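Re-run with default settings, no changes from the original entry. Doing this only to confirm the output is reproducible before filing.
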Amino acid sequence: MPGLQQIKDWLLTLALAAILALTIRAYVAEARWIPSESMVPTLQIGDYLLIEKLSGKAMGYSRGDIVVFSPPSQSGLHEEMIKRVIGLPGDTIFIQDSTVYVNNVPLTEPYVPEKIRQNFAAFQVPAHYLFVMGDNRNNSFDSRFWGPVSEDAVIGKALFRYYPFQHFTLFSASKITR
């Protein structure tokens, strides 16, 4: 039978482990599950990702980053969302003839499964905001409908997909070019 000191040691160890785990989840990284098809084919329903929470806050965001964020109130949604950063502060975004333009330059987007059906009038992204869109453009509720996302609302960037194991993917912003 364990002694009182041994029980205290175990309780202290468990408390420290819980504090460390909660701190890492709150400030460093956390796992996320994909619930919708708005990012198909890049992400499938049921995929699991690890998102990191430090680099975006410290160094900002890049066009092409996949981010998790709390939706703007005008979206009417309450669950966190995941989309790709298309426009950065100061950028002008528009869609014409199935092509997304950033600052009058067409984007090359190999991850988009089909041509976008709707045009979108020119919109300048305000300071401290991001313009985000799902990769499955014709089936995504995104900044085209409810406006840009505050950088403060971003929870983290997708670092890698770890499940299903055969689809392990390390994400980077380099998949988007102008």
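The mean pLDDT is 86. Helices lie at 4-27, 55-59, 143-146.
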